[in-house]
Amino acid sequence: MEEARLHLKDQLLCLETEQESILGVIGKEIDAACKTFSRDSMEKLKVLSSGPDILYDPHRWLAESK
């Protein structure tokens, strides 16, 4: 019985280590994606705001009023 408990405890420790590793990798991927989207969004904002029709767009007024 004690041997089975120790075996399960070892398995649990391995799974916890694996989980931490996987979550670390996922966190790095999410950070990289956020940085990429952040960079792209600033460029898209520059492109959108440079258009002549932006002054008359009702969505612009709505966005500025929030």
Automatic annotation (TrEMBL):
Domain of life: Eukaryota
Cellular compartments per GO CC: centriole; spindle pole
UniProt-listed PANTHER family: CENTROSOMAL PROTEIN OF 128 KDA (PTHR46657:SF1)
Name of the protein in its database record: Uncharacterized protein
Natural source organism: Marmota monax
